[in-house]
Amino acid sequence: MSTAVQNTTPPSGFSEFWFYFSRNKGAVIGLAVFLVILVLAVFAPFVAPHDPSIQNREVLLLPPVFSAGGNWSYLLGTDAVGRDILSRLIYGARFSLFIGLVVVTLSVVSGVLIGLVAGYFRGKVDTFIMRIMDIILAFPSLLLALVLVAVLGPGLLNAMIAISLVNQPHFVRLTRAAVMTEKSKDYVIGSQVAGAGTLRLMFLTILPNCLAPLIVQATLAFSAAILDAAALGFLGMGAQPPTPEWGTMLAEAREFIQRAWWVVTFPGLAILVTVLAINLMGDGLRDALDPKLKRS
Amino acid sequence: MLRFIFGRLAVLIPTFIGVSIIAFSFIRLLPGDPVMLMSGERVMSPERHTELMHQLGLDRPMYIQYFDYLTGLLQGDFGSSIVTKRPVLDDFVNLFPATLELSLCAIIVAVLLGIPAGVLAAVKRGTWLDQSIMGVALVGYSMPIFWWGLLLIIFFSGYLGWTPVSGRISLMYFFPQVTGFMLIDSLISGQAGAFKSALTYLILPTVVLATIPLAVIARQTRSAMLEVLGEDYVRTARAKGLSPFRVVGIHALRNAMIPVITTIGLQVGVLLAGAILTETIFSWPGIGKWMVDSVFKRDYAVVQGGLMLIAAVIMIVNLVVDLLYGWVNPRIRH
Question: Do residues B102 and B206 lie in contact, with contact meaning Cβ atoms separated by under 8 Å?
């Protein structure tokens, strides 16, 4: 008599996550595109065909290879001072991903800490914190970032600080709401009765159970940060020329809009593809991490 | 309801004070002091500097200065431009209709296209139609609108020559500003072709500014509809034999609208942030371009006043949305 072999161990956290994540085809495509961009960014010096800042006076505003007059050594053409656009885009990926990473780290760490304090202690501390967040949210984010950069001085670092600051209230609100729901649950009360201290309750008992919405929001903030930094660069308040940052490249390209479409088209396309890939991943993460949607 | 209104107003006061503190301190956080900012590149003797500081009341304690500033705000004094010397409030009142016209057109386009698109995607869930609508929506949501604007200019203005590149109306037309809304003023003026001209100038900026709200509204409508379509009362309505159009259009859509209305309200901040970029690209003479220009001209008095006024507009709109929401959904009030 043969018995069916049944695997009764529950799936590991990751394989369960991957099961739900991979059901969303868009998310998998997004992840793949994101990984390609990441690899290009990391290995930029090896991948880029040219130095991003070398100006070749022989080939000003050279069209891309597939249009008339193109040249195989400059696949996506050159800009107004003869720099290779492809190489600048590849190096630009470094800036955009770096901006996203720094902004998300800054706003998540500060936002989660503040939100945790507000949601855990409630009362006057909570009211005070939430009023401050209301004040930040009363300004259009880009305007506040623009003004902050005007105060701090234009540049990539200041742009990142400004964008982190305007992004942070979302994390505060989200953490606070999640903490408030979790705090009254039995396992928290149980652990409190067992003698767990405040810090232990906050960081080890409650916080891990609030992570799902935060991870999703962090993905969205990552792409929003890339967009905002590019917008500031476009307005001339972000990374300064000749940095090959995508938004800054677009700002430099604006005057050639009627003569050389490729100088304008490719940097924006790079921004769109990167942001789209991250947002696709974000949708997949939400499907995989949100238990409410899982069973629907 | 009255209690609800007063509750909301009470929350608004500390926010207003906080916003005014930010606007007040902004100019003092800049390197140098306001007098040095005003003098610009010119050299000023220390005596003259002290005199001006005294004259402007800048040598008094900070809290007294802030109190004066706040009193000024409440009396409608938002400062004057360092460059043009005109009161900031006057400029704002002159330029705001342009931004309002653009934003209203954008939100109307976004709502008129976004809600049907979201409903359609929800009803046809899982089909290629749903996937294409949501795909397009996600692209729109991820769009760097400053680039999108440039692309549209390259194609429609440069290649096809259909639309103008910048401004609000052709220079051929001149008529008095009655409402400040170019579309309405051009109609009132009765000049042949003026309305059409205003419309061609408005169309590209509207598309650009509507892109992100449209995508957000379509996504939100779809998920709200999906939630509602699974409810018992929808099944009951279907079981009663009501037409699918009636079930979706009346029973489901009405209940799905509550979160969508909130989303539309939240787009005001998005619109104003988007107006900064859109107006810069299309040289649209509204408050977004005005703020960017002032930042570049280092006209910090305008930036300060503009910041305060824009925040006030957003706070008022948010309050109105909140109240509307409380009115639509009585559960919120308690």
Answer: yes
